[in-house]
Design a protein that fits this description.
The chain has about 280 residues and is an alpha+beta fold. It is built from 3 helices and 7 strands. The radius of gyration is 66 Å and the shape is rod-shaped.
């Protein structure tokens, strides 16, 4: 499908360029004879439309002939030349064959004759200054195309309409190129956005992993601290129990010591009392 579309585009472009070239040729051939003094040319060549059969069978009415600028000193009898002349009291360009060349000093004069004019030479004798150039070839019936283009309908159909279509086609191409360019820019922007989004997602994943790692480490640290606190509490409890046991033992020992001391004091008191009694008895005796 793409190949057919591309081929169609190339064919249309070629046809339109052919039409443009034909239009340019038409414009040139129209301007070529507009000036009574000068004849336009393209790289020394001038295309002209044949108006009569005076040169048949060499070329006929409706043919497109090509005239090349030349050095008139190189012309010889039998050459076909295009020259300025007067026909029916009007300026015209005529293309006939040189029948005779006459020289007078540095000046040359030419007697011309149409191949189909039954040997009747042209009325006016021409000079070097009248000569436009030498005939070098023709395109059969191509002049009829120029004549058709000269008509209003032909100019409209063959020149104006195709040029308008070409302009519309080029505008369409520019619009399509602009649309494709916008699409390409949009696609590129979408790709960049997708890449940025992917990078952001990856960054979020990294951040989440870091957060999870931090949370895990914090939880582990909290667990370690809790276990350390629990161990410390257990140690404190044991120390407290040991302290209470030591206190109870100390109190018990103190109580025993107090009892023992009391017993000693009672014993001493009893012994003293007995001693006093003995002394009193001895005194009485």
């Amino acid at each position: 499908m793409k190949v057919l579309k591309k081929t169609g585009t190339i064919v249309i472009s070629v046809l339109l360029w052919v039409i443009i070239l034909v239009a340019a040729l038409y414009a040139f051939t129209t301007m070529a004879t507009r000036d009574n003094q000068n004849v336009s040319d393209i790289m020394g060549y001038t295309p002209l439309v044949v108006e009569s059969d005076s040169m048949a069978p060499t070329f006929r009415a409706g043919d497109l002939i090509f005239i090349k600028k030349c050095d008139t000193s190189t012309l010889k009898e039998g050459d076909i030349i295009c020259f300025h002349t007067i026909i029916d009291n009007e300026y015209a360009l005529n293309t006939h064959r040189i029948q005779k060349i006459e020289e007078s000093g540095d000046a040359r004069s030419y007697t011309t004759l149409g191949d189909n004019n039954n040997g009747v030479t042209d009325t006016h004798i021409i000079s070097d200054g009248d000569i436009v150039g030498k005939y070098v070839g023709h395109l059969q019936n191509a002049g009829k195309v120029m004549d058709f283009l000269s008509s209003s309908i032909g100019f409209l159909i063959v020149i104006v309409l195709p040029m308008l279509l070409f302009f519309i086609y080029q505008v369409y191409n520019l619009i399509m190129i602009s649309i494709r360019l916008k699409k390409a820019v949009a696609v590129e922007a979408a790709k960049e956005a997708a890449v940025a989004q992917e990078k952001a997602a990856q960054q979020n994943v990294v951040t989440e992993r870091k957060a999870e790692t931090a949370e895990s480490e914090a939880a582990k640290a909290a667990k370690d601290e809790a276990e350390a606190a629990k161990a410390a509490l257990e140690e404190a409890r044991k120390l407290r129990e040991e302290a209470e046991a030591i206190k109870a033992k100390a109190e018990k020992e103190l109580e025993a010591a107090k009892n023992q001391q009391n017993q000693s004091e009672l014993k001493e008191t009893s012994e003293e009392e007995q001693g006093h009694k003995a002394e009193q008895e001895e005194t009485r005796s």
